[in-house]
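Margin note: ligand = s-citryldethia Coenzyme A.
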Amino acid sequence: MTPSDVKATLSFSDGSPAMELPIYKGTVGPDVIDIRKLYAQTGKFTYDPGFLSTASCNSSITYIDGDKGELLYRGYPIEQLAENCDFLETCHLLLYGDLPNAQQKAGFVKLVTNHTMVNEQMQFFLRGFRRDAHPMAVLTGLVGGLSAFYHDSTDINNPQHREIAAIRLIAKMPTLVAMAYKYSIGQPYIYPKNSLSYTANFTRMMFATPCEEYEPNDVVVRALDRIFILHADHEQNASTSTVRLCGSSGTNPFAAVAAGVACLWGPAHGGANEAALNMLEDIQKAGGVERIGEFIKQVKDKTSGIKLMGFGHRVYKNYDPRAKLMRETCHEVLTALGLENDPLFKLAMELEKIALEDEYFVARKLYPNVDFYSGIVQRAIGIPVSLFTAIFALARTVGWIAQLNEMIGDPEYKIGRPRQLYVGSGKRDVKPLAQR
Ligand code: SDX
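Resulting structure:
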């Protein structure tokens, strides 16, 4: 953080003493006004529900420019990473700050590969759930349950523990997501196979059965690997902020990431990919492209409570660069699988076209986000809709743990404890029951 020559001055119309506030500059992006001394000096809080104007931390991991539609992981544009790297290279980048060379990559892949199994006791957690439980309910429980097994890596103040916990979480999420899926369809779990790549191993754990050899499909593996890269991190979004706040109490990384899984489940956040696919299927069932106009009318009618899922973003007020890449992946995968005439993809492109020409969306700067197309790709490669957000959680785990470790590694970090504007009842006395 570089102190700016410019200072902010806060003055009050009632003549209360003015206050000078330092401003800091980052590498790129908006400067910040340091208000850490505001309450001590003025007895006042700032007020920013939803944190529209609040920087909660300083970070070197991910940068987003909402106006330019730009996303950088450790300075590298997402388009270049999606084109030239695989997910584990991206994990190395997010965790350690740079892309690995060939030797570093080989070592990192070996490290992750050797941690993909979970304790055999984990399967008994699943038995407590109904078979039709939502996979995100199961995953929230499984990830939190990991903290019951790895006491040798939960001292978050020990850098080695932080690193091994990061590797364990990245390595085990595919195994847990696949176990949740197999449990929901009543099939036996498939153990990890170390001879396969990270993402090929995940597809085998998802789709293989003990009855025959399974050969990963390169198109599916490449598409999923790109989906993982696009979802790996995204600055201080709701679930990442949840992981940071939860981790700031000193709890173990498995518990903090479980909190992130729970937050991501919400339809306004990671649950949007499942909601967007269901929305497209509903429009399709109601008649497809010719029903788009009526649907858009419902969306514009605030009383309907209907939103165009997969559209809009707190930061991107221009196109989400991930949505563009996801649409390309959609086209590649559907063509490779002979599904180029997939009616849902055509419907999605028509819906996007109409929305982007409609004043309601233009005026509100609503563009497709990463969730608008990701469901179509996942459905095409055989991922059930209810598992979409679990796939998002699998990918986002590296971002959550990288951000958590960055916070814990900062000697200045404190437990997060926001304040409030109290608007409840003034002090009053309890009346005896007979007088209430
Ligand atoms: C993700 O933060 C991240 O980085 C998240 C994420 C990540 O990688 O971590 O990018 C992943 O969560 C992507 C977002 C997925 N969510 C959805 O697709 C759900 C639909 N989108 C909306 O719920 C909404 O756009 C949000 C939650 C994403 C953003 O909401 P904001 O920034 O709080 O904006 P808002 O709700 O104040 O909306 C501003 C206006 C409102 O209209 P007015 O009151 O001004 O008339 O835009 C309207 C909203 O009603 N609006 C929409 C809309 N999104 C916003 N209207 C119709 N459909 C939508 N999708």
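Residues 234, 237, 268-270, 272, 299, 307-315, 364, 366, 369-371 surround s-citryldethia Coenzyme A (CB under 6 Å).
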